[in-house]
Amino acid sequence: MKLNRLIYTLGLSLMLVSCSEDFLETDSTEFISRDRLDGISETDPSVQLATLRGIYSTMYLTGTGGTTGHDDFGQRGYDIFSDMLSTDMVLGAKIYGWYSQISDLQVTIDYTNNRNYMVWRYYYRVIYAANSVIDALGGTAVVPESDEAKLIMAQAKTMRAYAYFYLANFFAEEYNPTEEILPIYVAAVAENVALSSTEQVYQLILDDLNTSIEYFGEWERANLYEVDGMVARGLLSYVYSAMGEYQLAADNAQYVIDNGGFPLLTREELTTNGFNSVESPGWIWGVDITNQIGLDLISWWGQVDLFTYSYAWAGDPKIINDDLYNAIPEEDGRKGQFVDAYGDGQLWPLNKFFAPDRVVGGQRTIESDYLYMRIEEMYLLHAENAAKAGDEAAARASLKALMEERVPDASYVDALAGQALLDEIILQTRIELWGEGKSYLMMKRNRLTVTLASNHLTYPGQEVPFNDDRLTFDIPQSEIQNNPFIEFQ
Predict the structure, then answer these.
(1) C-alpha–C-alpha distance, residues 169 and 441, integer Å
(2) Which of 78, 201, 280, 382 is a good FRET partner for 17, with 20 to 30 A between their CA atoms?
């Protein structure tokens, strides 16, 4: 388990319009306190559904990592953290400093740094809320009687699995079944517990997702922000892939491809879609961000999009790794997603992520949507895992299906085999899913050594292996102080 090895004293960076970043007074084990269960009804499904909606809103609201930081805005915030750690996303300047310590690989070697707490607190908050719903239905081991209760249970267990999976990736250097990595809580009211092994954590994740898939059946959700059987299978593919269960990972990805009805993004749409709307037919999971939600400066769009009034536009661009960009062939439609906006050589994702009006600094209240999962991920996951399972023909078929919508001639895929095939799938995953928080998961499961970008502000060209201390978060100081079963190391 990765705990702290070195403590740094770091000054706070400059902050826009006198923004502040508060350190929490409450501890990270707050989610286990009994008084927060008041009002949960065992008989009123509307209460449980309201709690589910609260879980979903945790994924995009600000402050859900427990701070007032302008990098604290749910899942998409941690996607930026992970994209920078994987080196595919590069911080282009340090004017306001919200990502300076992530970019400089300092957060992850200092357990007192509050960003470790943000990540920990966010996912355990999701787990607490999911456990509240599960408890109200009778507990983890109970089989609900009604179809309505089963659907509620399925959503709660899928969200719990999602949270534990990300925790297992962020806080463990690698998949090692015997290593103790996380405390497991399967009830909202519980005492502090010791760290459980990777094997135990992943078994809970598998149990939750497989149960959820059974309960979901053919259920058709009303909103894309809700998880359903396709989302659960997509997550299950990621989980099996991390475990090295390649055939099972490939099978679940293929199921989503065959049964989800999600079309691939076409070559013509690569620079016009904007990845900004839940109306995109290839989105498997996402959320419709509306004016009423009230997101603005503190948001993923604010941190990444030039056409949104916030940090990227004001001076802290999030740009592509130059070496990755140079690996994209000129004829590949995705090359056009990245543009040198100001003639200084920095390549912004102007034609991949953009507020629809395309007015520089124009979007003040966020109405561009958040993407969590899309069908292209399943094609790439299937290709990767089929190749590892020895079915190279199936791997080539999935990769070629994607590449036929990316380049004029995808016939080169037919000749790929062995390591060359896997290397191509890894490269295409990095290109296709740039800025979507998936490269870090891919780096971990493939045990890659990454080369920090030639345009990295601090360590250009430095090689960092996947299990380097600097690429994995520390269990935060507050958790160590408040949980007597976790020792400082």
Answers:
(1) 7
(2) 78
Which residue, among 480, 473, 450, has the nearest Cα to 169 in the 3D structure? Answer: 473
∠ Cα 202 204 210 (to 5°):
100
Distance in angstroms (rounded) separating the CA atoms of residues 452 and 78:
19
Task: Assign 3-state DSSP to the chain and report helix, strand, coil percentages, each to 5.
Answer: 45, 5, 45
* 3-class DSSP state of 195: strand
Instruction: Locate 272 and state its tokens.
Output: 């016009």
Burial of 400 from C-beta contacts in 10 A (0-12 / 13-18 / 19+):
middle
Measured in degrees and rounded to the nearest 5, phi and psi for residue 217 equal 55, -130
User: What letter represents residue 230's amino acid?
Assistant: M
Residue 284 in 3-state DSSP? Answer: strand
Mean pLDDT for 405-416 is: 98
Task: For 425-460, write each residue's pLDDT tens digit.
Answer: 999 999 999 999 999 999 999 999 999 999 999 999
Q: Which one has a higher pLDDT value, 40 or 353? A: 353
What whole-number distance in Å separates Cα of residue 288 and Cα of residue 278? 6
Mean pLDDT confidence for 288-313: 97
Per-residue CA distances from 231 to 222, 239, 373, 377, 431 (Å): 14, 12, 8, 12, 22
pLDDT score of 43: 56
Cα–Cα distance for residue pair 352/313, rounded to 1 Å: 15
User: Phi and psi (nearest 5°) for 102?
Assistant: -70, -50
Q: Which domains does the chain have, with CATH numbers?
A: 1-219 (1.25.40.390), 228-288+370-437 (1.25.40.390)
**Other C-beta atoms within 10 Å of 78: how many?**
23
What is the signed CA dihedral for 71, 77, 82, 83, rounded to 10 degrees?
Answer: -100
Q: Is 146 exposed, middle or buried (0-12, 13-18, 19+ CB in 10 A)?
A: exposed
CA angle 474, 8, 84 (to 5 degrees): 55
